[in-house]
């Protein structure tokens, strides 16, 4: 592995980690779950009991759920 | 949801029916192989652990035994990290083996209840960061700073030993027990394990404790921002920045969280730099130089509005910013301490540890050290987090040790670094900053006279030291900036300027630190008010059913107003307290937090007893006993103590008698109004102490009762959810062990169509 490739790999890991901790991968996880659970492709067509939410709908739904179910932050 | 039915055919109560290899590959390591790996001591392993033990031992000797002029900060870091590693490797493994007994054949809620949203299996390393960001806030940064008045050693020992034997144990057990119960909350577990009385007492205690904690965190921010146009500007700017971020994510680019967090971070830095410019203008001096009462009212109004606004607009973006800042700043401080290695000239144990007359917090080492430092050593509040979001995201059972126990060790390390930062500044400056205005008069001359009158060896404060430091950090004055946050900010700027920028950058680093603490605290205030509002609505709903509907606007607003009024009243009381505020109220914060810990540990004890694990009950009984003794004795001293500096009612009596005798000034209260305020405040504080201690005693007694009953009945009853067969595999710790690597490689090599996906719905 060249130095450049190593740096690139490291940067990708840092980005992956940061995105994970901030929760940016939530939509991707939701889509994967939906596909697995409902036997649909990623576009959401198929036998889904709940139609797949679009990215915009998903994030709205996420903050709306937080509105109804608040979580404390520690001191 | 019918989660179980779609995942397995064999839902059963008996774990023996669980399969280790349900389909193609194993979902759990072979227990014998696992045990063999743990027992196998290769020469390399022996060498590594010997080195860790030797370095840890040497560090403790340097801290506790060797008495030089100064001690280097690096020994704090080494003593902490080596002790954590040993505690993690040996003590948490012991707890895992004998009490927790995780079973990777069992599916976690994230697997069997998977919905892709609240219940979603998350990579263990990501979840560790997530959990850490949720538990670590301003608490571990403030408590150790205040406790530094007793010398460096008591606080260091309590933080390090306390976390290994108490704090991390609590977090680990609550996380695991909640996970085994589908992510149930602490309140629900208390009702299940302790019955109606214990459960109700735990619920009321949680609500009251939440109010106190929010109030005192708000007091810390108020004290940091008072008379500081720079701080008011830069912290105030976080509101429009968060609103902008919220709108960006809602309407412009949904889900681009990292991107907007970086933009937000750049704007924050601009706000800090801009604050320096604004503070120098007439405009800044006229409109932003605010006194404590004005700022307190500002925070109260802000708290109400923030808590009724939708989450996406303010809370969520602020959360992203605060996570971003938290990880960045703590990492930066760690690097700086290791590179700079400041020398610390504070005595190991100061005279205030035994005399109890310290100006920062009144009271002797026992019990007040243990309530002043709560977060970082043992924090009951974590039980609310560990029974909230985190248990719903865990991928495999064996990961709870890394996330629960390990996450708390990380917070403890933050507390150690805060302690080091506070210890690294001149001791005279430390006392001038942390003595209440009632003692220093709020002036440089007053502070110099007061600090030098303490007769501390090696302390010789001059007026120029205080004015020079104030100029360096870009403040009018640093006298009587109580609450811990400004002291930590001075310490952090003192360390950081040696690494980046020199003296001219100190003001930037100071306001950077203030900003990052204020960010955590304002998020905690907002979120705490919301949680408290829901708890209140739930309780009110028993009498007025309409309140149960949390989307009913008038009800939501009324409940929010009640909660804000409750913490706002305590905040205003602290701000206007003629006795100082922080020194009278901070012990209540610590007591409240530790009582919550006692409640959480009491629930753990009842659960462990019901599972029939009496031989190992001491693992829970030890920290529970300690937390109970500390908090109950601290409460009793606060309630019955005869010394006016410590006992609330003694203070109350002294001031009432002075008023009755017609005196117009008494102690640090210069007027009749001030004396009346003291009488009022001490009564409120005393009553709150009584409420706390009574509720906690009820909870602990019901837990003991449940434990004894379990012992008599030889009970093996469990309130766990039914075991569900797991279909997935993931390693347990941060680094994979050799057997884990082998199994992981097999999973990685599995053809895609054979990989079992988590199902749910």
TrEMBL record, chain A:
<dbReference type="Pfam" id="PF04328">
    <property type="entry name" value="Sel_put"/>
</dbReference>
<dbReference type="InterPro" id="IPR007423">
    <property type="entry name" value="Sel_put"/>
</dbReference>
<protein>
    <submittedName>
        <fullName>YbdD/YjiX family protein</fullName>
    </submittedName>
</protein>
From TrEMBL, chain B:
<feature type="transmembrane region" description="Helical">
    <location>
        <begin position="263"/>
        <end position="283"/>
    </location>
</feature>
<feature type="transmembrane region" description="Helical">
    <location>
        <begin position="157"/>
        <end position="175"/>
    </location>
</feature>
<dbReference type="InterPro" id="IPR051605">
    <property type="entry name" value="CstA"/>
</dbReference>
<keyword id="KW-1133">Transmembrane helix</keyword>
<feature type="transmembrane region" description="Helical">
    <location>
        <begin position="196"/>
        <end position="220"/>
    </location>
</feature>
<keyword id="KW-0813">Transport</keyword>
<feature type="domain" description="CstA N-terminal">
    <location>
        <begin position="72"/>
        <end position="634"/>
    </location>
</feature>
<keyword id="KW-0812">Transmembrane</keyword>
<keyword id="KW-1003">Cell membrane</keyword>
<dbReference type="Pfam" id="PF02554">
    <property type="entry name" value="CstA"/>
</dbReference>
<feature type="transmembrane region" description="Helical">
    <location>
        <begin position="556"/>
        <end position="576"/>
    </location>
</feature>
<dbReference type="InterPro" id="IPR003706">
    <property type="entry name" value="CstA_N"/>
</dbReference>
<feature type="transmembrane region" description="Helical">
    <location>
        <begin position="588"/>
        <end position="609"/>
    </location>
</feature>
<feature type="transmembrane region" description="Helical">
    <location>
        <begin position="295"/>
        <end position="316"/>
    </location>
</feature>
<dbReference type="GO" id="GO:0005886">
    <property type="term" value="C:plasma membrane"/>
</dbReference>
<feature type="transmembrane region" description="Helical">
    <location>
        <begin position="616"/>
        <end position="637"/>
    </location>
</feature>
<feature type="transmembrane region" description="Helical">
    <location>
        <begin position="132"/>
        <end position="151"/>
    </location>
</feature>
<feature type="transmembrane region" description="Helical">
    <location>
        <begin position="46"/>
        <end position="66"/>
    </location>
</feature>
<feature type="transmembrane region" description="Helical">
    <location>
        <begin position="683"/>
        <end position="704"/>
    </location>
</feature>
<feature type="transmembrane region" description="Helical">
    <location>
        <begin position="508"/>
        <end position="525"/>
    </location>
</feature>
<feature type="transmembrane region" description="Helical">
    <location>
        <begin position="232"/>
        <end position="251"/>
    </location>
</feature>
<comment type="similarity">
    <text>Belongs to the peptide transporter carbon starvation (CstA) (TC 2.A.114) family.</text>
</comment>
